[in-house]
Amino acid sequence: MASEEGLRDREQQEGYRAPRVTLTIKDFDVLGRIGDGSFSTVFLARQKQSGKQYAIKMMNKHLVMRNKMVEYIKNERFILDKFDDAGIAKLHFTFQDPDNLYMGMEYCAGGELYEQINKRGRLPLEAVRFYAAEVVLILEYLRKAQVVHRDLKPENLLLSGDGHLKLIDFGSARAFFLPAAEKPPGKQRATSFVGTAEYVSPEVLLNAPLSYPADLWALGCMIYQMIVGRPPFKAASEYLTFQKITDREFAYPGDPGYNADGEPDDEEGGEEEEEEAGGKEGKAEGGAAAVEAAAQREGADAEAAAAGGEGAGSSSGAGTGGGGGGLGAAGKVPKLRGPVVYPDDARDLTDRLLTMEPAARIGAEDMAELRAHPFFAGVDWAALRAGPAPPYLPPRVPGAPGSDGGYEEGLDWELTSLVRDAAES
Known about the structure:
Blueprint: E1 28-36, E2 40-47, E3 53-60, H1 61-66, H2 70-82, E4 91-96, E5 100-105, E6 111-112, H3 113-120, H4 125-144, E7 147-148, E8 157-159, E9 165-167, E10 174-175, H5 202-205, H6 213-228, H7 238-246, H8 258-261, E11 273-274, H9 290-296, H10 302-311, E12 334-335, H11 344-353, H12 367-371, H13 406-424
Antiparallel strand pairs: 1-2, 2-3, 3-5, 4-5, 6-8, 7-10, 8-9, 11-12
């Protein structure tokens, strides 16, 4: 396997795509914070020698061990090292010091797909078709690699500088090629709920065997969210969300019950409006029999819940960042207004993805069936990743002055302290 150019494995082993290098935090200029987790911080950094930029995920060893997440970290590192696909954010290298583990990830300058949906209210249909098609290509690769992601959602899909999607966060993934000893602990059951409530498939909640169609269910949820502006299964609590999923309770715009489900916040009509990116939803995790567990832990300690989400291998924004392109001369794209239109072909595809029986979902047996759906008519699959991407709203550049005044300065001070402590360890 070819290692990152200029970097060699510290033990001279050539079997790693992402070598275990002898770098330290002092070898980087830290440019700004990208994201946070309960035991990790992700920041944009430039390697001093090469001048290359990376999204560095720094994980505190003490917190990793205290939360018993060592196997999850090993699982993510092992899986990422096997991947070589344009639709997956690349792991370039890893290193460590006495207090922290570091993963040098590909920096994706366009930020999260979630931010595009959140700030624009919803996406134009052609953008939905483009992003959904790129997710199909990613899922095809994962199936060939014998991996189920298990936490497919807009927050875990990043935009490259030219606007193409890249998937992150494989700590909760199931790799069927891994020997039993290398899988994360607690896998005696058929499956377990690890991921985000709004996108988890019904078979996971019902403790049925895990299979590739679990990610197809999440794709159906994302297509709905991109068109409507919110996930199809969303309620006031995790428990109620699970109930909606197991009952397959959702409605399309114009159907009875759609208003009762809650309209997206921006469905009031009016002229097109220009917005910038920002905002994010939280993450949830549970164990087997997740519906019952969610009912018991409503109102539970938020820090413990966050630790669980991180335990699922959350990249906490790893690889996200600012800058980016894909925009016209004005550097802005319009926020959509007016009634939501859910085309018939999109509705048919969503229905066939959000099928309760995993084996009955479109693409469950053959992903070519999914490619051939009328919703993707006109998609040039061979040229999709090489062609132009939809325009997007670039996020704030990490480390750049923000609108939060002292709050932004406080974040920079905290990051500076973390990096200084790491450099002195």
